[in-house]
Design goal:
The complex is a heterodimer of chains A (295) and B (89). Chain A has six helices and six strands, in the order ααβαβαβαβββα. Chain A is an alpha/beta fold. Chain A has a single domain, classed as Pyruvate Kinase, Chain: A, domain 1 (3-Layer(aba) Sandwich), CATH 3.40.1380.10. Chain A starts with a helix and ends with a helix. Chain B has 89 residues and is mainly beta. Chain B has a single domain, classed as Sandwich (ATP Synthase, domain 1). Helices cover 0% and strands 73% of the residues of chain B. The termini of chain B are far apart. The chains are: A alpha/beta (295), B mainly beta (89). At the A-B interface, helix 2, strand 6 and helix 6 of A face strand 1, strand 2, strand 4 and strand 5 of B. Strand 6 of chain A pairs parallel with strand 4 of chain B. Chain A: It holds the Pfam family ATP-synt. Chain A: Belongs to the ATPase gamma chain family.
Chain lengths: 295, 89
C-alpha cells in the first residue's frame, strides 16, 4: 500500500515541475509575440511602398521581363515552406506542412516538378524522415528572423527563377507560410510569388495608378525592384510566421499547463484515497489484533 | 506653396517622414532633384547621399546603400536598403 502513495507523490512532483516549465514557456512566448508583432509592423511601410511601386511598373503592359512573364505550361516550381525550428507549438508546423503537401500534390497532378526549399528545422526533419530531396534549407532563426537571411533566401530563389528551365531553373515560385490573423487565429497560407500576378487587390478603390517616368528605364527599374520585392515579401512572411509560431506556442503551453493542473488534481485525489485506505487497513489490523488478545 | 510629403523607409523600419521643400538623390545616371509639382517618377538609387530639405529646420543627409524612390503628386517615397540619417550641413 505504501508503495502506491509513493508512486502518486512522484507523479504529482514531476507533473508540477513540468507545469512550471509550461508556465515559463507560456510567459516567454507571450512577451516575444508582442515584439514579433512590432517587428512585423515595422516592416510594413517598406513592403507597402515596394508593392505599390512594383504594381505601377508591372501594370505597364509594354514592359517585358522574365519575372513577370506568365508561363502557360509550367514545368518546374519551387516551393518555399516555412515551419518552426522548435516543437512545443501545437499544430503550427504540422498545419504548414499539411498545406505544403496538398500544394505539392496539386502541382504534381498538373505534371509540374516540385523543388522544395525549407525554412525551419521541423520542415527539414519532415523531409529527412521521408528521405525526400530538397534544394535548400535554412534553420536557426525562425523565432527572430533577420533580414540578411531573407536576402539570402530571396537571392537563391530569384537566381533559380532566372535560370532557363532546361538548365534546372523553375517557372513558378510558391510560398507556404502561416499568416498571423490574431492571437487566437493563425492561418497557413499558400502564395504564388512569381511570376507576379499583377497588382494587389488593394488599389481597386485607388483606381488608376499614375503613369510613371522611369529612371533610367522601365526594364532596369524592374530589374532593381523585383529582387527587393521578393526579399521584402519573404522577410515579411518570416516575420509573420514567427509571430504565428510564438502565438501557437503560447496557446499550446497554456493548455499544457491547464492539463497539468488537472492531472495534479486527479493524482492528489488518488493519493489521498490510497493514504486513507492504508490508515483504514492499519486500524482494522490493530483492532483485529486487540480483539484476538482480548478473547 | 506646395510641399513634398516625404516618407523614407528602410527594410525593417521607417526612417523619416515629414514635409520637405526639396529632395535630392543619386541615381545610376546622376543626381536627381525633386521639387514640388514634379512629374511621377520611379528611379533606382545607387549608393550615395540623399539630401532632404525639410520645410522647417536644417537639411538632412542620409547615406543610402541603394534602393529606389517614387514620386507621385508630391508624395515621395524613398525605399532604401539601408539608410543612416545624419543631421548636418
Amino acid at each position: 500500500m505504501g508503495a502506491q502513495i509513493r508512486v502518486y507523490r512522484q507523479k504529482i512532483a514531476s507533473t508540477s515541475s513540468m507545469k512550471k516549465i509550461f508556465k515559463a514557456m507560456e510567459l516567454i512566448a507571450t512577451s516575444r509575440v508582442g515584439k514579433a508583432r512590432v517587428r512585423a509592423q515595422g516592416a510594413t511601410p517598406y513592403a507597402e511602398a515596394i508593392t505599390r511601386a512594383v504594381s505601377a511598373v508591372a501594370s505597364h503592359q509594354e514592359v517585358e521581363h522574365v519575372l513577370t512573364d506568365q508561363v502557360t505550361e509550367p514545368k518546374r516550381a519551387a516551393v518555399l515552406i516555412m515551419t518552426s525550428d522548435r516543437g512545443l507549438a501545437g499544430a503550427y508546423s504540422v498545419n504548414a506542412l499539411k498545406h505544403s503537401e496538398s500544394l505539392v500534390a496539386r502541382l504534381q497532378g498538373q505534371g509540374v516538378e516540385v523543388r522544395p526549399y525549407l525554412y525551419g528545422r521541423k520542415a527539414k526533419a519532415f523531409y529527412d524522415f521521408r528521405s525526400r530531396e530538397y534544394d535548400g534549407v535554412w534553420t536557426g532563426s525562425t523565432e527572430s528572423p533577420d533580414s540578411d537571411q531573407a536576402r539570402d533566401i530571396a537571392q537563391k530563389l530569384v537566381d533559380r527563377f532566372v535560370q532557363p528551365v532546361d538548365e534546372g531553373g523553375v517557372d513558378e515560385l510558391y510560398l507556404v507560410y502561416t499568416q498571423f490573423k490574431s492571437m487566437m487565429t493563425q492561418e497557413p497560407t499558400v502564395r504564388r510569388l512569381l511570376p507576379l500576378s499583377v497588382v494587389e487587390d488593394e488599389d481597386s478603390e485607388a483606381g488608376q495608378l499614375p503613369l510613371y517616368e522611369f529612371e533610367p528605364s522601365a526594364e532596369e527599374v524592374l530589374d532593381a525592384l523585383l529582387p527587393r520585392y521578393i526579399e521584402s515579401r519573404i522577410f515579411t512572411a518570416t516575420l509573420e510566421a514567427s509571430a504565428s509560431e510564438l502565438a501557437s506556442r503560447q496557446k499550446a503551453m497554456k493548455s499544457a499547463a491547464d492539463n497539468a493542473d488537472e492531472l495534479i488534481r486527479e493524482y492528489t485525489l488518488l493519493r489521498n484515497n490510497a493514504r486513507q485506505a492504508e490508515i483504514t487497513q492499519e486500524l482494522t489490523e490493530l483492532i483485529a489484533g486487540a480483539d484476538a488478545l482480548a478473547s | 506653396m506646395a510641399v513634398l510629403d516625404v516618407q523614407v523607409v528602410a527594410t525593417d523600419h521607417a526612417v523619416w517622414t515629414g514635409e520637405a521643400k526639396s529632395i535630392r538623390g543619386r541615381t545610376k545616371e546622376g543626381d536627381i532633384g525633386i521639387l514640388p509639382g514634379h512629374t511621377p517618377v520611379l528611379a533606382v538609387l545607387v549608393e550615395g547621399e540623399l539630401v532632404i530639405e525639410p520645410v522647417e529646420g536644417p537639411a538632412l543627409t542620409a547615406t543610402v546603400s541603394g534602393g529606389f524612390f517614387s514620386v507621385d503628386s508630391d508624395k515621395v517615397t524613398v525605399v532604401a536598403d539601408d539608410a543612416d540619417l545624419t543631421n548636418g550641413t
